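Dear colleague,

Thank you for sharing your sequence with our group. We've completed the structure prediction you requested, and as agreed, I am returning the results in plain text so they can be pasted directly into your records. Please verify that the sequence below matches your submission; if there's any discrepancy, let me know and we will rerun it promptly.
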Amino acid sequence: MNLAMIMKQVRQLQERISQMKAELATKEVEGSSGGGMVKAIANGNQEIVAIRYEEGIFNEMDPEMIADLTAAAVNDALRRSKEMMNQEMSKLGAEMGLPIGDFMNMM
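Please find the predicted structure tokens below.
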């Protein structure tokens, strides 16, 4: 394989990664804690876009418990978002014949 072919593949990969990032920004995953009392929504770019609380939670629990449940729900949502991104990167790598998924799993 010559340098021109490699550079062409790199440009194609960069374009596909940009497309994938745009697509991931529109996808959402939900993380939860406390049996669903707290839910966090993250997009595919590992950004939290919403946090939802079960009605009455602020009357039933102390602030420290709510903070702990919120952190757990956010961490769950971010973990799921990262898994979604890794799956998409693996698909992209397979399409292009590159072991991108293996690289992403090391991060």
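Summary note from our side: The chain is about 65% helix and 15% strand.

Kind regards,
the structure core
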